[in-house]
Structures are given as structure tokens and as C-alpha cells.
Write a structure and sequence with these properties.
By secondary structure, the chain is of the alpha/beta class. It is built from seven helices and five strands. Strand 1, helix 2 and strand 2 form a beta-alpha-beta unit. The chain is globular, with a radius of gyration of 29 Å. 36% of the residues are buried.
């Protein structure tokens, strides 16, 4: 029952994203590691998605990330394949190589093995990059819920992030200006008036 709900959610999100991209004339590429092409699969499972989806990169190995997406070896060495920095480099690489408007990247540890100190099973890093320079990063720790569940939940998160960026930049909210209250100090003339009124009678 749970898997059926996730599939339904995936289909609904995919359709919403595709409709939004059509309306805004946006194209998408995917760069996937732990999801192994499932994000692209969810989107291309919808008929007519070819007017939005350009291509998908499945870069499971570090070598593939370097060759296909241009992720620097120094980035992988310093931060590891499962990191915010690598996810960002993957998304930007897919964006540049495909020449699309939006690109999403997923890299994580689906399990059951592969955990390292500080990077447990279920850890997934996401990045979405837009042609206008916006980048959205997210880290999810799904836990040891099973390989299939981690991958499926990663697909849903990736679709949500794409929708968030596809909606466009949020308009800046102008801070409300506090009304300027000008205080007029009582001038000496008031006291002078008072002084006139309180003149002492001549002695």
C-alpha cells in the first residue's frame, strides 16, 4: 500500500512539474547517482514529456561524474561523492552540458551497505540548478528504510525541488517603512506666553 501511494505521488508530481515547465517554456536534464535514472524515468513515464525532458546522466561512479559532468577530482577527494559540493557540481555540469533551463542531481547511500563515518545509510544530497544562476541544495537522512524506499523517496524529493525552482524566483518583499513621527519640541515661545500671562503686578 505504501509503495502504491509513493507511485501515485510520483506520477502526480511529475505531471505537475511537466505542466509547469510547459507553461514557462522550461527544459530539464537529470544527473543521477543513487537513483540510477529513476528521476528521469518518472518524468519520461508521462506521455508527451519529450517537450520538457532533454536528457539524463546516470553517473554512478566517480569517473562518470568527472567525465560526463565535469565534477572536479579535487571536489570528490575533499568532500566525497555523497556531499553537497558534489551534488551541486553534478547539477551545474548537467545544466551546462545539456544547455537546459533546469537540472537536478542526486547522490547518496541507498544501502544496505556503503555507510561511512558521518554518512549513514539513507543519506542523500540533492541539488537543483537553474539557468538564471539559482541553486537549491538539500540534505535528507531517510534512515535505513530499505534500498528501494530510499531511492523512491529520493525521486519524490528531487521532483519537489524541481517544481520549487521551476516556479521562478520569489519576489522580494519590501520591508514596511515605519511611519516617521516628527516630534516638535515645545519652543521657548510657549514659556514666554506663559511668562506674559504671569506678569507680576508692579510694586
Amino acid at each position: 500500500m505504501g509503495s502504491e501511494r509513493q507511485i501515485g505521488s510520483t506520477n502526480s508530481l511529475s505531471r505537475s512539474l511537466l505542466d509547469l515547465c510547459r507553461m514557462r517554456k522550461l527544459t530539464i536534464a537529470t544527473a543521477e547517482s543513487c537513483t540510477g535514472g529513476l528521476v528521469a524515468g518518472a518524468l519520461t513515464d508521462i506521455p508527451g514529456s519529450s517537450d520538457v525532458i532533454d536528457r539524463g546522466f546516470v553517473t554512478y561512479s566517480n569517473e562518470a561524474k568527472r567525465v560526463m559532468l565535469g565534477v572536479k577530482a579535487t571536489t570528490l577527494a575533499a568532500f566525497g561523492a555523497v556531499s553537497r559540493e558534489t551534488a551541486t557540481a553534478m547539477a551545474v555540469g548537467a545544466l551546462e552540458r545539456a544547455g537546459v533551463d533546469l537540472a537536478v542531481a542526486t547522490t547518496g547511500i541507498a544501502g544496505p551497505g556503503g555507510a561511512t563515518p558521518g554518512k549513514p545509510v539513507g543519506l542523500v544530497h540533492f541539488a537543483v540548478a537553474a539557468r538564471d544562476g539559482r541553486i537549491l541544495n538539500r540534505e535528507c537522512r531517510f534512515g535505513a528504510i530499505g534500498r528501494s524506499a530510499v531511492r523512491q523517496r529520493s525521486v519524490i524529493e528531487a521532483l519537489r525541488m524541481l517544481i520549487e525552482l521551476a516556479r521562478g524566483p520569489r519576489a522580494a518583499v519590501k520591508p514596511k517603512r515605519e511611519p516617521i513621527v516628527r516630534l516638535h519640541p515645545r519652543l521657548a515661545r510657549t514659556s514666554r506666553r506663559g511668562a506674559v500671562k504671569r506678569r507680576r503686578p508692579p510694586r
